[in-house]
Structures are given as C-alpha cells and as structure tokens.
Amino acid sequence: MPESALLRFLELLQRELGAEDAWLQLGGSAPSDGHLLVHEVTGITRVVVRFREPPAERPLLAGRLAALCTTFRTTIEAAAEVGTAPRAPTDLARQRLDEELGALAQRAGASRAFVFDLDSPVIWGASAVPAGASPPANQALERAAAELREQRADELKKAHGHTLRLTLDSGEEALVRPFASIYVLALLFSDPVSEPIALGAILHAAGVIERLVLALPPVDPEPGAKVLRLPRRR
Fold first, then answer.
1. Burial 92-123 (b: 16+ CB within 10 A, else e)
2. 89-228 has CATH 3.40.640.10 classification
3. C-alpha separations of 26 from 46, 122, 168, 193 in Å
4. Which residues pair with 37 in a beta bridge?
5. Does residue 228 carry a pLDDT above 90?
6. Which of 143, 150, 159 is nearest to 118 (CA)?
7. CA 20 to 30 Å from 208, out of 20, 40, 62, 225?
8. What is the pTM of this model?
C-alpha cells in the first residue's frame, strides 16, 4: 500500500537525519525556510525534512537525504502517483469523516476524536493532529482503542447508544458512544472534561458521523494485522 510504505519511509528519514518532521510535497514552490532540507525527486515531487533548529551540517545531511530518496525512489513515486490521482468517492467520504471528527474534537475540548471497531482492529477515522505530533499521538490513540476494545467491550455493547464516561489506564478520560452494534465514537481528554459541553457536541455530531461510517466499505485486515488510517498532516 503506497501510503503505508511512504509513512514508514518518512519515519525512517526522521530517525536517520534527526529531524522533527518529514513529508512529501506535490507541486507548488520549493520551500526556503532555513529549518528545512528539500530534495527534488521529479519536477513536481519533493521530499521535505524539517529540523527543530537550522541544521549546522547542511551539506552532509543533504547528501544523506539524497541517498535515502534514491534508495526509496519507487516508494516515493508510487505515493506521488496515488496523491495526484482523482479522488475516489470512498476517499472523499473518509476525508469528510476525519473533518467531522476534527470539528467534534474542537467543539468538545477533546485531544482526539475517533471511531473504532469492537470486532476488529480497525480505526475508521480520527481527528487530525499537528504534523510533528503525529507518531506519538497515533500510538496513544491505538493504545486507547485497544484498551477500550479489550477491557470494556461488554460494557460498551450494553450501552445501547448512550454516552459513557470512562477513565483509561493512562489517566485520560474518555467519552464513548457505541452505535450500530460494533462501532464506537470516542473522545479522549488530556484536560479536565466539561461534560455538558462535550455531551452537547457529541449529540450534535453523532448523526452525521454515524451515517458517514456506515457508508464506508468494509475493511478486512489480514490475521494479526493492525489497521490504522493515520490522519492527514495539517
């Protein structure tokens, strides 16, 4: 899958170069920020790496970036081809779901909003996070979903569409609302919860989010696989 391979490549760049973030840019002007290193793969495709401080050894790092991009050129080109292809209706529906979850998280004062599956390790959608925070934030989201699925499944299945307030092993609080037997709309809170505001936001958004989830095609992960659709970077 081009997106998964690209994410692994970008994470490799961050580790190997000691960078804060990395992404693929399609089209537009080449960025010129001193915190960035840019490698042009094709006329419209660039790999961009961002450092916390302007890199002191820029020529050395630029050479390592170029070498890694050459090694993984097939991965980059495959991802670029997908990125420039016309968007399928399913992709647009997933984007709309992520956007609705982002709006819900903001209204409710939550750190994340997402929809997961009680019967499989599928996360159907999630609110976005700032680019540099994506890896740890998505790992925390996976852990929260796994805990709710594995430790609270019976409780969630008996909720019958009601919203529950739960405390996770991490100390975070969660508001969770099961729907359609196997799906759960979940909000995570790193700050204190204003329950009236959060519940109002959930009730306002639940209908649209549920319809968007039910309109998505099924996903059949391979045995033992973890399926996580990482939110697009802001």
1. ebbeebbbbbbbbbebbbbbbbbbbbbeebbb
2. no
3. 7, 29, 40, 39
4. 49
5. no
6. 150
7. 225
8. 0.58
